[in-house]
């Protein structure tokens, strides 16, 4: 029972981490369609650095840095050049899919060989200390949005940017900060998927979890705590689909693998 609960927490962690950052971004008036691409880029960067250095912590840092770099480029196009967020986010996803796929094939062969990288350490009993970061980050983000001057500015940037500008705040500066925070959380999400769950990498390994995170932000009503609770449903669906695959081997596994995505659609 404990093992099943830990598995649910692990499977929900990438969506929860990405969702916390995305909830902050959307409160500031940003819609990060490129979340999937940021997570995928982070997953590849963390895998490669961890495999090269033997340090999962170096891999984690590299994954976050890669996602923030993508976030900087996306913010440049959307906040500085004022291009459409959906179009730019879609371009980021396509770029990340092509870049990681090309590098993966160049480094590990046409079909990719089995890769096993150093994973983030666990405590005795299988407890993952990294999972403790998620509720702490959600609580901190919720408190900041509700109680701090910075959080008030973030919310106003998404709801009443003209009034915020008139009050002496810089709307672009707040949105730049929100974009980079969201990118950093996307980097944590993609890196944790590689270093905390799979211990490996495959092409398009994130497989739509960035879009699921956006759905969970809506379901959680743009509240970081609500987003984390909603993400637990995704983790539960992931665990259930693996259990169903093991007890119903005659049924095509793709039917069960679709369960988390069906849940996200139902939630919306």
Polypeptide structure, described:
With 268 residues, this protein is mostly helical. It has 12 helices and no strands.
Describe how the helices and strands are arranged:
Blueprint: H1 2-27, H2 35-53, H3 56-80, H4 85-108, H5 133-147, H6 149-159, H7 161-166, H8 171-198, H9 209-219, H10 224-247, H11 253-257, H12 259-267
Helix pairs in contact: 1-5, 1-6, 1-8, 1-9, 1-10, 2-3, 2-4, 2-8, 2-9, 3-4, 3-8, 5-6, 5-10, 6-8, 9-10, 9-12, 10-12
Which characteristics define this entry?
mainly alpha, 12 helices, 268 residues, single chain
Give a brief outline of the structure:
Helices cover 76% and strands 0% of the residues.
Q: Please identify the structural class as seen in this structure.
A: mainly alpha
Poorly predicted ranges (pLDDT <50, ≥5 residues)?
none
Please outline the major beta sheet.
Answer: none
- Distance from N terminus to C terminus (CA atoms, Å) equals 30 Å
Give the helix proportion (percent range).
Answer: over 70%
Number of helices: 12
Radius of gyration: 18 Å
**What overall geometry do the principal axes of the alpha carbons give?**
globular
